[in-house]
Amino acid sequence: MEDYSLQPRFKDSRHFKDFWTKGNGKKLIDFSGAEVNFKDFEKFAPFYYHVDEVGDEVVKDVYFTQKYSEASREIEQYIRNGISQNDEAPESVKKLFTQTQKLPEWLDYDLIKSGAELCMRSNLDSLISLRDYCLIGGYDYAYLNKPLVATEALKKGAVKRLSETLDFWVNVTRYDALEVHKKGYEFAIKTRLIHSYARLSIKKHYKNWDTKNWGEPINSWDMMATYIGFSLVFLHSLHKFGNTISEDEEKGLFHLWKYVGYLLGIPENLLPDDKKQATEYFYLWTSIQPSSDKDSVLLAHSLLNESLENPILKYSFQRKNLRYLHICCTWFLLGDEVCKRLQIPDVPFKKGFPVTKKIINKIYDATVSREARIKKGNKDQMKVLEDYLRITQNSNFH
Question: A Pfam family for this UniProt protein (predicted)?
């Protein structure tokens, strides 16, 4: 492999400076108490060209030697029943499952429970945050999107992409989901191997991949940024919507995603423990990312128009109204600069819905018990997921 050296190449760009001095980056610094600088840049930069080699070897040994369906069945057996060194299986498979079946010394299931409860009790705010801040905000980083473009994610459609993200997120954030062999653990391992499969396919078939600028496809540093989206950015979004968050819940959220990241093969020293660390890590990563390009705009608009394409809501006026509400939340959460770059439509009274939501959340948090909110949030989130899976698993839906 060529030896690339990486610099914080966009640190003097307007989009980087504006984000960190007056945009959401500034708010993240204020929110987290982070101290941002470039002194640790050299420590993180090599991970732009680093990948999950263990996952890649499993894909080569299992998925590339038989039919995809047969390979998936084989991996499911290991996920659900475990593996030992005496089993007849490729060395790569033994290595992967030896790592993921071994609990790291720092793992605290009580903290994971607190993080899962925050995800559940935040109800639809959680799903709005994932969609209108974490996902669409990620599209503003042009190089981060390149694997999506290379694997033709736009052709697959936003409904399917959203359904897959929701399925993963819901299943790793329920009670006990991340215990070895349980559902969340299964989703983490399968997602890890999907990443490896996509990476190897890109390297084989996508001849225009620009490793020097874009890093390795689905590299470890980009993976870190993605999972900071699920922890730091998600937390900031709930905060923006007026949710009260306890210290244990906040710690728990970072702990939950640290463990998911560990299962996904992200190097442990890239997984932040708290919002201060996460903001400092994120600052360094954003300095190597240019702002939106034409692919970013296409991805953002595909997600916005998902509400119009999705047949969960029966009537056209309902779908248009849902799209309008998501646009309002996107402006509220992402801010004007990013929304203008992504060409998010400007709509009238766009602060009305998010501000009302914020007021209602404060009243709801103060008057309804935490247990009742967790129970209702879990039920409502599961209902949304069921609706999406029903639509996307219907063979007539494209």
Answer: MPAB_Lcp_cat
According to the model, what pLDDT value does residue 3 have?
66
Lowest mean pLDDT among 92-106, 127-141, 143-157, 240-254: 143-157
Residues 223-243 have pLDDT tens digits of 999 999 999 999 999 999 999
Which has more pLDDT, 87 or 200?
Answer: 200
**The three-state (H, E, C) secondary structure of 132-186, written as one string:** HHHHHHHCCCCHHHHHHHHCCHHHHCHHHHHHHHHHHHHHHCCCCCCCCCCHHHH
- Determine how many CB atoms are found less than 10 A away from the CB of residue 291: 20
The number of domains in the chain is: 1
Q: How many CB atoms lie within 10 A of CB 73?
A: 11
Model pLDDT for residues 321-350, shown as the tens digit of each residue: 999 999 999 999 999 999 999 999 999 999
Distance CA 88, CA 262 (A): 25
User: Which of these, 393, 375, 323, lies nearest to 120 by C-alpha position?
Assistant: 375
Domain that holds residue 347: 14-45+107-167+207-390
CB 55 within 8 A of CB 322: no
Closest alpha carbon to 300 in 354, 274, 338: 338
Q: Which of 286, 75, 42 is nearest to 185 (CA)?
A: 75
Q: Is the separation of the CB atoms in 320 and 167 below 8 Å? A: no
| DSSP secondary structure code for residue 344 in this structure | P
Q: Residue for token digits 């473009």?
A: 149
Locate 244 and state its tokens. Answer: 């009260």
Does 20 reside within a domain?
A: yes
Question: Percent of the chain having pLDDT more than 70?
Answer: 98
Nearest 5°: the CA angle 228, 234, 237 is: 135
Residue from 396, 367, 393, 364 nearest 380 by CA: 364
Residue 116 CA to residue 290 CA, distance in Å, equals 33
Q: Choose among 332, 335, 383, 376: nearest CA to 358.
A: 332
Encode pLDDT of 265-277 as tens digits. Answer: 999 999 999 999 9
Asked if residue 246 belongs to a domain, the reply is yes
In a domain, 153, yes or no: yes
Q: How far apart are CA 383 and CA 60, in angstroms?
A: 37
Alpha carbon distance 350, 324 (integer Å): 9
Answer whether residue 68 is part of any domain: no
Among 257, 175, 182, residue whose Cα is nearest residue 223: 257
Q: Which helix (H) or strand (E) holds 44?
A: helix 41-44
